[in-house]
Write a structure and sequence with these properties.
The radius of gyration is 21 Å and the shape is globular. It has one domain: TIM Barrel, CATH 3.20.20. The protein has 18 helices and 13 strands. Helices cover 43% and strands 14% of the residues. Helix 9 runs antiparallel to helix 10. With 469 residues, it is an alpha/beta fold. The N and C termini lie far apart (43 Å). Helix 16 links the parallel strand 10 and strand 11. The structure holds beta-D-fucopyranose (FCB). Beta-D-fucopyranose binds next to loops.
Length: 469
């Protein structure tokens, strides 16, 4: 275990202004790697879920995805050409531990060695996320996130990853969007493992929180100068229609969406509205185990939610935004002001450096007759959202980096390959990669910031700064 002193020294070194604002992109293993049954990888709950009829659009699977497992060198070259400072990817737990625990799978570990080394050679900082939703099926068979023992299994996995890559990688996230995979996977049955059960949901929430704390400890023990955090969604939950029913629904939804994980992890207690439901699973010492100090807050944000009352186990679900609110092709509302307000609110509440770990949009991208992709919608979205971020920074939010979702078009969970989120177009028939117009736009933004050697805040229009003050 590192001492408090060495910990804060580490924080200073990694977050010193000299290290600059990081511009990056994010992906996750199940969504891009493919090679699902190669070199000893075990099944994950998403492999099994995809095989179940009617779960994923068009019966799509992660068997091949973007074939990143074999094409990682080409993908790193694309990132280098774009000028990215950093890249967040996740490790496939069943690739390195096919049954989730026990003997490690050397070919799986060696793949991430190759990826990390290629990133470092391209001068791109690797950020590893331990869990982006692909639980080893063998662990689900013994209860998965509903089994309290998983905190120990997850800590062992974290230690393995820390020991293996910690000489070259310093940034680690424990979880990506714990609220989504617990709520959708155990509450609504929309994601793997497809369960809709209140007790299952509450057990999963608590055990994920325990696993987070256990993994933080494991990483701090295994990696010198480590910088750790978790990646959470935070999104304002507005009401779909005025009135007490939707208002109560929006408040309930927001507790599960925004607070169920950051609140215990940062403040060592569950939000009052959740405390009673978690109580049966709580043991002495749990809250201290969960609330381990972290070095940063990873934020995923795409849009606000418009929530309506429902008969599901939460009494709340997604509703439609008002007609005047523009939406992306996947139907998500475009409200950059909500992003600015979320960043400011995060800063006020949590007081740790913020990294935007996902922001971006789906768009109906098509190859034109010249073989190019002119994704103007994405450029407009990214410009509006990065402007909103700059406003938040100018108003005092401590934002240290911004990662676009996503580097590549990829497997978008229940939507399969029907939704394209990438800066780079993937022709899934041939696996050809074609950087879209947005990739060139992003590359220009990064180059301009770098050559001007100024902080992003300096680019905020004067009127936006005035509006904030
Ligand atoms: C986020 C997920 C990511 C991707 C984007 C569009 O909720 O973390 O894997 O699906 O949405």
């Amino acid at each position: 275990m590192m001492t408090a002193k060495s910990n804060s020294q580490t924080r200073r070194a990694l977050h010193s202004p000299k290290s600059g604002f990081l511009w990056g992109a994010s992906t996750s293993c199940f969504q891009i790697e493919g090679a699902a049954h190669i070199d000893g990888r075990g099944d994950s709950i998403w492999d099994v879920y995809c095989r179940q009829q009617g779960r994923v659009k068009d019966g799509d699977t992660g068997e091949v995805a973007c074939d990143h497992y074999h094409r990682y060198a080409e993908d790193v070259a694309l990132m280098r050409d774009m000028g990215l400072d950093a890249y967040r990817f996740s490790i496939a737990w069943p690739r390195v531990l096919p049954t989730g625990r026990g003997a490690a799978n050397e070919p799986g570990l060696a793949f991430y060695d190759r990826l990390v080394d290629a990133l470092l050679a391209a001068n791109i900082e690797p950020w590893i996320c331990l869990y982006h939703w692909d639980l080893p099926q063998a662990l689900d068979d013994v209860g998965g996130w509903q089994n309290r023992d998983i905190a120990g299994w997850f800590a062992d996995y974290a230690a393995l990853i820390g020991r293996r890559y910690g000489d070259r990688v310093k940034r680690f996230a424990t979880f990506n969007e714990p609220c989504v995979f617990t709520l959708f996977g155990y509450g609504f049955g929309w994601h793997a493992p497809g369960i809709a059960d209140k007790a299952a949901l509450h057990k999963a929430i608590h055990h994920v929180n325990l696993s987070h704390g256990a993994a933080i400890d494991a990483l701090r023990s295994a990696v010198r100068d480590v910088s750790v955090g978790a990646v959470h969604n935070r999104q304002p939950c507005y009401t779909a229609t005025p009135g007490p029913d939707d208002e109560a629904a929006a408040r309930r939804f927001s507790v599960y969406w925004n607070d169920a994980f950051p609140h215990p992890q940062h403040f060592a207690c569950y939000p009052p509205a959740l405390a009673e439901a978690i109580e049966p699973y709580l043991r002495p010492g749990d809250m201290a185990q969960i609330a381990r100090p972290v070095d940063w807050f990873g934020l995923n944000h795409y849009s606000p939610h418009y929530i309506k009352a429902d008969s599901n186990l939460l009494g709340a679900t997604f509703g439609a935004p008002p007609a005047e609110v523009p939406r992306t092709s996947i139907g998500w509302p475009i409200v950059p002001g909500a992003f600015r307000d979320t960043l400011l609110d995060l800063h006020r509440q949590f007081r740790v450096p913020i990294y935007v770990m996902e922001n971006g949009t789906a768009s109906e991208d098509q190859l034109d007759s010249r073989g190019a992709v002119q994704d103007d919608n994405r450029i407009l979205y990214l410009r509006a959202y990065t402007d909103a971020m700059n406003e938040a920074i100018a108003a005092g939010a401590d934002v240290r980096g911004y990662f676009v979702w996503s580097l590549l078009d990829n497997f978008e969970w229940g939507s399969g390959y029907s939704q394209r989120f990438g800066l780079v177009y993937v022709d899934f028939a041939t696996q050809r990669r074609i950087p879209k117009a947005s990739a060139r736009w992003y590359s220009d933004v990064i180059a301009a910031k770098r050559s001007a050697r100024v902080s992003v805040a300096a680019h905020v229009p004067a009127e936006a700064v005035a509006a904030q003050s």
